[in-house]
Amino acid sequence: MSGCRTRRHARDTCAGHDGGVTRPALLAISHGTSSPAGQAAVASLVDAVAARLPYTLVRLGHVDVQQPDVAASLDAIPQGTPVVIVPLLLSAGYHVRVDLINQSAGRGDVTIAPALGPDDRLVDALIARLTPLAPAPEDALVLAVAGSSDDRANEDCRVTARMLGERLGREVAVGFLAAADPRLDVAVTAGGDRVVVADYLLAPGYFHDLAVTLSGSAPVAPPLLGSDEPPASLVDLVVDRYKGAAGLSD
């Protein structure tokens, strides 16, 4: 482990140099949540990413709800250091297409990586969360997603449902928690008497609680992140989004 990592927090590294080459900082931007469990889960993911990138300055900011916001997070990174923003968002909705662009416009050395999904590694994490619930062949599967006013983001989630269905060899319906139809409760009811809900949410918080409420008696898998160790597939995905946007091959 690099000796330049501070004792104060594992996400703060003093190095931006690797063999004389300045590496862009990685600014991971989450949606933000008021849930302490959700905050801790996202911070744990970013800590794991930082451990994989010992010569990279890694910071966490938020597009909504929490502080520091995008502008404050960028201000905390030294001027002259290029920055790659990696959205910790599962689809490319309004936050990715509009908010991140607007909120980073004051700094010219910023590159915004794609959203995390759709991606096979997210499907890996979904299956890992579903497995303890042991869905039976006769159980209907519903993917609970947050929903967006931008239907391109909703389509990203539908693609993920199809990818999950292909991996499991069964149909997976989609139920939205906001902004789109069908709502999760409608999708669960349409599934019949035996339904299992996969939770396509990054971390615990308001939307996961809503998913549990709307699912009624149907069991709901945990979000992708929790109090356990972040899935290696998700850490790989964030690192790859950073390296791709930064033009790094190692």
Automatic annotation (TrEMBL):
Family annotation (InterPro entries): CbiX-like (IPR002762), Sirohydro_Cobaltochel/CbiX (IPR050963)
Pfam families documented for this protein: CbiX
Domain of life: Bacteria
Keywords: Lyase, Metal-binding
Gene3D superfamilies, sorted: 3.40.50.1400
Protein name as it appears in the record: Sirohydrochlorin chelatase
Origin species: Microbacterium helvum
The organism's taxonomic lineage, starting at the top: Bacteria, Bacillati, Actinomycetota, Actinomycetes, Micrococcales
